[in-house]
Amino acid sequence: MKTLIYLLLILMVTSCEKKNKKTPIHQKSKTENQVHKRYTIDAKSISIVWTAYKFTDKVGVSGTFKDFKFETKNATGTIDSILNESSLKIPTLSVDSQNEIRDPKLRSIFFKTFHTDTIKGRILTVYKDSGLVEISMNNISKEVPYSYIVKNDSILLKTHLDLTQWNGQEAIEALNKACYELHIGPDGISKLWPDVTVEVQFPLLVRLQE
């Protein structure tokens, strides 16, 4: 009988020791808690695409700018923190529509009449997928809305400009006069719209920090 009691006591002590050594179910590893995904923008790979519109039925003509300067207060962080108060300065002489006839006219006629040698854009607010950007041209600054999505490790930002808000009508008319025949649509009307769509792609580099 004494031997049986002794064996039961040993089993109880062993069972308690195993329970005390058990790891809590909800405890996370130190490494999992310390690692956070953050980003930085690959400034050298930024691309800027503009689309202007001709003809009565609004056919798009696209181009880029070969030169620009990107600045941000937060080189590394969340997407919101990197975009907020970031800016682009774009020399208009770097315009490139891949058309040897059109590009000299854009430089010497449109932007000269528009009194704009540098286009400046500065992001004022960043929300979940939109915000406000300040665009400065022709000695005028205007706030316009933009939208953005994150796709394939890039921020794709898009905005729409009405150049009449920057007193651009004279420049539009001067360019349309210089390219009158090129802007004649199927209806026989020569038309150059004041609307311009701008799309900026910001490639992202992922940073893992502890």
UniProtKB/TrEMBL annotation:
InterPro entries noted in UniProt: Lipid/polyisoprenoid-bd_YceI, TTHA0802/YceI-like_sf
Domain Lipid/polyisoprenoid-binding YceI-like: 39-200
SUPFAM superfamilies per record: YceI-like
Superkingdom of source: Bacteria
Pfam families, A to Z: YceI
The protein, known as: YceI family protein
Annotated organism of origin: Dokdonia ponticola
